[in-house]
DNA sequence: TAAAAAATTTAGACTTATCTAAATTATGAA
DNA sequence: TTCATAATTTAGATAAGTCTAAATTTTTTA
């Protein structure tokens, strides 16, 4: 088994790898709230364990065994988030930090039974896909509503920013997963958007918000 | 917050305190599978934090704040065990090690909602009482069936030994919580007992087993 | 293409939690 | 009551994970 710190590093590298082939020391340090020197130390350990490909100064990528571990942590994270929202009735903005701890509970049988107990959910409360017990999942094909044009429409299916403040704002505006919206107007000046809900109500959202609200067409 | 190691020490001291006013260094070392010297180191830290009363060579006892923390860990342990058995359908001999990890999940709100979700269970799968969110619980008034006499009867309500081997043995003999039994005979020679189940079936159990099976009259 | 700036690594230190071996204190049997 | 033994503590190491400050390498910019 790997330590809690190792698991968090692998998960961070996995998430950062979505944007870039190789992940830099500073990116990892920023995402884990540590110092670059601490990251370098850990990278050596992970490389020794053959969980990452690492050459000095060149950044890192996960090996396939490192990726497997990362995906498993993410599976646990997302299943626990689903549990907290669906069974314990937490709000979607409250569950991330708890899941950050729970994702390190080691038993594979526990997580598989939890998955079964909840009837194999496909997405976590933020719309992220939940890997199955073999680590397989469909990469979500969502895109920010900021990429849409006037008259386009679709269903809110994910968020890019998981911060409490953003999620609470969305909740207040009823911009929650599953809601259908269409674009009424895009303001030239600041790229803010006026969108219409199914109940015809119109909401004005900033470019920033539009960049972080994901939609399935 | 306290570290995982600190929490485990407090819990161990709590359990050992049931038999004796003061708990010895060696007792703690045995229960946590560490060395006496490691225990001494930790006792100093816990004493500095005012979680235990400690004077060199004299053993330790919990302060009220130490006890509060210990009871809270035990509450979490027993609620997670109950969850694993009642919701995820694990057997009673499978859940202890998982709960040993889960008891360290920190959120109090999480555990209170879990408690509510399961409708405030009073006992864990081994018959141990579950403290409420204020740390209150009734000390169980169970006694080993080895203390009974011929013709006495009662309901199996707990086990003293939580090892897989004992629990699996009991399961196989149908000696599970809630079953009513009565004492048919006590063998002079080795203090083994012949007990009768509700269905009139008779089972012969060793003195050792009888010492570890608890009953409510 | 040579500085300057930025990124990364190394050196040395600290904390937590362990350990072994040695020293000290307590205990209980003669 | 004394001394051998058992229990406990201290001394000195080690490993994981982190930090600051200094050194090194890479990248950018002029
Ligand atoms: Mn999350
Ligand atoms: Mn985590
Ligand atoms: Mn248990
Ligand atoms: Mn534990």
UniProtKB/TrEMBL annotation, chains A, B:
Q: Which superkingdom, per the lineage?
A: Bacteria
The protein's matches in Pfam families, at most eight in alphabetical order, are given as: Fe_dep_repr_C, Fe_dep_repress, FeoA
Q: Which InterPro entries does the record cross-reference, listed alphabetically?
A: DtxR_MntR_Metal-Reg, Fe-transptr_FeoA-like, Fe_dep_repressor, Fe_dep_repressor_sf, FeoA_core_dom, HTH_DTXR, Iron_dep_repressor, WH-like_DNA-bd_sf
Instruction: Output the Gene Ontology terms for molecular function.
Output: DNA binding; DNA-binding transcription factor activity; protein dimerization activity; transition metal ion binding
* UniProt domain HTH dtxR-type: residue ranges: 1-63
Name the residues that span the membrane: none
Keywords carried by this UniProt record:
DNA-binding, Transcription, Transcription regulation
**Alphabetized PANTHER family for the sequence:** IRON (METAL) DEPENDENT REPRESSOR, DTXR FAMILY, IRON-DEPENDENT TRANSCRIPTIONAL REGULATOR
Task: Report the function annotation for this chain.
Answer: In the presence of manganese, represses expression of mntH and mntS. Up-regulates expression of mntP.
Family per record: Belongs to the DtxR/MntR family.
Q: What is this protein called?
A: Transcriptional regulator MntR
Q: Which organism is it from?
A: Mucilaginibacter lappiensis
């Amino acid at each position: 088994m790997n330590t809690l710190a190792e698991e968090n590093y692998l998960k961070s590298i996995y998430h950062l790898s979505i944007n870039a082939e190789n992940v830099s020391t500073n990116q990892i340090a920023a995402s884990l709230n540590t110092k670059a020197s601490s990251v370098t130390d850990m990278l050596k350990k992970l490389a020794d364990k053959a969980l990452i490909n690492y050459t000095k100064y060149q950044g890192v990528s996960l090996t396939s065994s490192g990726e497997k571990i990362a995906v498993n942590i993410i599976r646990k994270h997302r299943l626990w988030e689903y549990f907290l929202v669906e069974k314990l009735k937490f709000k979607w903005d409250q569950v991330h930090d708890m899941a950050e701890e729970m994702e390190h509970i080691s038993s594979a049988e526990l997580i598989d039974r939890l998955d079964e107990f909840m009837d194999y959910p496909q997405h976590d409360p933020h719309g992220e896909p939940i890997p199955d017990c073999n680590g397989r999942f469909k990469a979500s094909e969502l895109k920010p509503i900021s990429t849409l044009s006037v008259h386009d429409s679709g269903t809110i299916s994910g968020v890019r920013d998981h911060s409490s403040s953003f999620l609470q704002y969305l909740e207040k505006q009823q911009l929650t997963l599953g809601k259908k919206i269409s674009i009424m107007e895009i303001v030239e000046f600041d790229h803010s958007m006026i969108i219409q809900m199914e109940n015809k109500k119109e909401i004005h959202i900033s470019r920033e918000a539009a960049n972080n609200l994901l939609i399935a067409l």
